[in-house]
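Deliverable D2.4 — example input (structure tokens):
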């Protein structure tokens, strides 16, 4: 196990019944992604994944997620996100923190 990986618990997922992410499952999830959404930290957009449908990379993605499920390990890079403060209304004072809401962008891929 790599030092940067963290063991995780899947509270709402029955590992015994879901040990493999099949290519068809990954393909269906990718098809459901919304075009035009913001990319994550890695810069990968839904359009990139949709363009890759039918290629060998989808098989690699399914193997990667299957290994995450099998061993209960999620790489730290999958848990990184970007915190973006958003002003609630343009008329509010931008110098006051209570006038902001927080948007936390995580990887959707």
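Example output (designed residues):
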């Amino acid at each position: 196990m790599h030092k940067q990986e963290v063991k995780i618990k899947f509270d709402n997922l029955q590992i015994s019944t879901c040990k493999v992410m099949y290519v068809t499952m990954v393909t269906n999830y990718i098809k459901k992604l919304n075009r035009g959404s913001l990319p994550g930290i890695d810069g990968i957009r839904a359009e990139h994944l949709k363009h890759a449908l039918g290629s060998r990379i989808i098989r690699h993605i399914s193997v990667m997620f299957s290994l995450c499920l099998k061993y209960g390990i999620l790489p730290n890079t999958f848990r990184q996100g970007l915190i973006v403060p958003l002003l609630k209304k343009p008329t509010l004072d931008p110098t006051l923190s209570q006038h902001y809401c927080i948007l936390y962008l995580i990887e959707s891929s």
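The first helix runs from residue 23 to 32.
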